[in-house]
Amino acid sequence: MIAASILAAQAPLSNFFTSAVILATLASAIRLATPYLLASLGETLGQKSGVLNLGVEGVMLLGAFFGYWTVLETKNEWLGAAVGIGVGAIMGLVYAVMTVNMRAEQGISGIGIFLFGLGASELLFSELVGTPLPLTSKFDPVAIPLLSKIPKVGEVLFDQNVIVYFAIVSVVVMTWVINRTTFGLNVRAVGETPEAADSLGVSVAKVRYTTIIIANMFAGLAGAALALELNIFQNNLTNGIGFIAIALVYFGGWKPSGVLAGSLLFGLVVATVNQLKTLGIVSGTTASLVTTAPAILTVLALALIARRASDPPSALTVPFTRGH
Amino acid sequence: MKSNYRKIIALLAALALLGAACGSDAASTDTTTAESGSTEGGAEFTVAVVAPSAANDLAFSQSMHDALERLKADGTISDFVISENMFVVEDAGAALRGYAEDGFDLVIGHGSQYGSLLQEIAPDFPETAFVWGTAADTFGEPNISAYSAAADQGGYVLGTMAALLSTSGQIGIVGPLEVGDAKLYIDGFKAGAEATTPDIAVNINYIESFSDTALAAEAATAFIGAGADVLTGSAQMTAGAIGVAGNADVLWFGTQSAQTQLAPDVVVANQVYHWEGILADLIGNISSGTLGGQSYDLTLENGGLVIEYNDGYELPAEVKAAAEAAIAGISDGSVSSMGG
Question: How far B115 CA lies from chain A's nearest CA (Å)?
Fold first, then answer.
């Protein structure tokens, strides 16, 4: 616990640079980054196959509501997370039918998914729950043997809940899948030149169905993870996380490792600003200005991305029609 | 009454999906919700509300919803409807105008961001009464009234209790934007705590959002990490912070609506807005022909602000006595809720 004197008005900046505060800020950054990471990992896979989904936010909201409601009714957080994933899979199937079979314009249909998720989650919350009730079950931290005993850092990095570990492991797995497997090769081919992939016998529809469904499963889990972390559901709980996750895909250059870096950086900036304000180091107008830092970071990242070597998949947002 | 507007929105969204799938480029990006303006038969006085958040937010919008439920139960009004989550001002304007066109007797803009909309809309409907808040300005229009909440009063009382209950001498406050009744509440809370224990540390984090539940939770976590053993906050995003307080066994004081259900073991007391008193006065004036020009204020003295203690929390008698003394002092004017 930090000394009492820290919580004083207009505290000096040096109060931030203590091990306790820095570690607390890192822990906060990891908590904040996890939903972004999960959602943007899924979106990365989808975009690698040429499918943009602006409905991530809506799928997250549905995953958050159904995950919350399931845990509220069953007190089983594992079931809640599974239901969040399942809801994502269903929404992914819907989106795949729209974008692959019906060749819908992806930007518009994604917004439709978002609106549906926003409205449906509100409706269901109102009808099935009514007024916010706290969850009594959540994922407890799981300490990794030995690593969690590393002084100070161990507790921050290696004593997280299972969702955080899953997100980190997913970065490694997705990197391997995209770069080292036949499926990953097909995903990249479909995202870059679907006509060529098709001519080589790769089913563009099958690949895109798979990536869209997996991407939405990640989004559903991201929503459920958020509700479980907060122990609560409210209307519009995700508050724009899904849209920022899409921006993080661009920031990360369509690479899982880049998305991880972007999510952690975004979480770290938000957590640092929050800590500076909480400790009274910044206040008033300065605090208001500092609060805009995450948004500025996002805009700068997107502006700079245009200058980088990483380009979006060539067939991103382009529906595939054989012979066209 | 909560009508079926969400179903309509969900249906519209589904139609948007279908339209997009069919290649349409006309799908709406409107994320707000709208509620049916229909009322059931036999209506004598009908009310329509446009609110910035959900009617079940356990905060600002719910306080108005609950007040209207009470007015409907006692027969003061025959029916009411609410358009929730009207955080986009343009959509709120369309809803306000729509309710006026539908012939509601009273149209409420329940948010300080709606003032300019009413100033524009009200002259077009001279036979309709409008009210908005929290604010005091009626713009000189004969059919606009305003209401506000002296949230600093209850804040002062709760701050008094917080200072007496804190053992670490650290109090944390999670605020939304530094405006309106949230600022009043927080200023009053700080004044009450410092008047009770002059050397107590009261730190405030305005997270610059009414809806970022995750960030509010992180602010609460940071306060607790820094030693705070009493927390409070204002607006609907504090649901996340209350959960953190509950998990950490840190005391919480609520405002706007009763928030005890979110953390029954740690919520000590709530300042609850009871709008029904001033709304009944307003409706009486409207019924007698005065459609606007009035300003109303919720206070401890007029019963619009009520300190509701959590029966599930064992509040020491001396703390409750101090709270009651503060209520009495503010009500008779011997105590300033802004300190000094």
Answer: 24
